[in-house]
Structure formats: C-alpha cells, structure tokens
Amino acid sequence: MAGFNPAMRPHDDASEHRYIHVIGSSVFVDDRVGEEGWTTHFIGMLDDVAVWGVDVPHGEDPSYGAATDLYSYYGRATELDWLVAGRAVQLVEWARTHRYCGRCATPTQMQAHERSMKCPACGLLAFPRLAPAMITLVTRGRDEVLLARGVAFRAPMYSCLAGFVEPGESLEDAVIREVREEVGVEVANVQYRGSQPWPFPHSLMVGFRAEWVSGDIVCDPTEILDAQWYTRDSLPPIPPRISIARKLIDAWLEEG
Predict the structure, then answer these.
(1) Is 50 among the domain residues?
(2) Is there a domain that residue 121 lies in?
(3) Is 106 contained in some domain?
(4) Are residues 92 and 205 in the same domain?
(5) Is pTM, for the whole model, over 0.85?
(6) In whole angstroms, how large is the CA radius of gyration of the chain?
(7) Which range of residues forms the domain containing residue 153?
(8) Nearest CA to 134 among 194, 224, 93?
(9) pLDDT tens, the chain, 256 aa long
C-alpha cells in the first residue's frame, strides 16, 4: 500500500498517532485512546503517523454511537484509510480470539519480535488468520459474462462467483471446482488478475478470469439465487467499487 508501512514497531519520531477503535466489528477513528488500559495493537506507519488498533471492551463506546461498519466506512474514507482500518479490525479480532492456546488452553502471550501469540506452556504459536478465497469472472466469447446473485448478498445485485480454497487445493483448481459446484458449468484458461484484502472477517480475495468451456447454468440453491449470461449493454446491478469483483467487471467492460 503506497504511503503505508506495516512495520512491526512504531517509529520513535512519529509526528502523530491515530487510533482506530474497534467496537465489535465497527470502527471509530480518533487521535487519542478512549480509555487508558485498553489493549492496543500497532498497525503500521501511515506516512509519519503511527496507527494503532484499539480493542474496545464489550459495552464501551468511545464514539457515542458514531462508529461505522467497514462497508459504510468505505464511502467516508480514502481507499488507503479503508484498507488500514480493515487491517486494524482483523488484528484486533485475531487477538480477541487467540487469548488462550488452542492446544492446552493456557493464556497466550503477545510476542514483541513478530505478529504472533505464543503459549508459554507448550510453545504453540498462533499467527493472524487469513482465509484465501478465489473470485472469478467467467466469460463466454468476447461479449458475455456470467454473473450471479448469491443467497447471502446484502443487496439485490449480481457479481462474480467466489468461494474459499480447500486444503491441498491450488487457487486455479478452486476456481474450476467452485464454478462447477455453484452454477454447473466447466471453465478453463484460468488467469490471475489481482488480489484484495477483504476483512469480512479475514479473507484474502484472489481474482481470476476464466473461460466457459461447456455446460448450461444450473444453480446450487444453497449458494446461488440466480445466475445468467450478460452482455455489456444489459448488465444487472453490480457490486460497488469497494470490491475486486467490480474491478474484474470494469476491466472486462473496458475491453469492449
């Protein structure tokens, strides 16, 4: 991220500090910590500003109701500020959920030299969790794309197909499997197009393009409400610019 350095230690000469208070999974940005004694996590240097994530205890609200979820914060902040806030939410939530060793239940200790929680009893290390997920825009010829409306979508829109990578599976194999499972078609020529941190709650979205080979659309009703082939002049509502899905669609639109 240009202008952002996720260093493990803050610069001693930082000209100012910024505190991203994580209230549940919402954020409130201020230039001071709400209360002394609240747990803070160094996020990185944003130019000369040291950025901290603050774990706000349950029931407390230093924002007095002004905190916003990350979806809404995107429209109020620059893309860089949004990415840094998402990093803060992920790191605070990781620390919240790794207070005890997953092997022996001993309270863990934050390590100073690396981003990890260590069990003092059995030595197990826990690092921030990332869940890799593929997202792909399927094309048929030069003028058609396959877009789908997911069961869990928050808004009535159509987007690219996506899914989590399974153990022992390559990203490309995940693309082929997920497309087959969700809409019943076969694809090939899977090509990487970019990636995006996606803090909902801790995914890394890896974007691809893939070409239709065979098969008619048959939706998995547990995942997909509807899926259709669309041309450039007949697109349904598509995702906002916050997402890599929109970047994949926009790149295809520019090709036409």
Answers:
(1) yes
(2) no
(3) no
(4) no
(5) yes
(6) 21
(7) 131-255
(8) 194
(9) 557 888 777 766 667 899 999 999 999 999 998 888 999 999 999 888 999 999 999 999 999 999 999 989 988 888 899 999 999 999 999 999 999 999 999 999 999 889 999 999 999 999 999 999 999 999 999 999 999 999 988 888 999 999 999 999 999 999 999 999 999 999 999 999 999 999 988 999 999 999 999 999 999 999 999 999 999 999 999 998 889 999 999 999 999 8
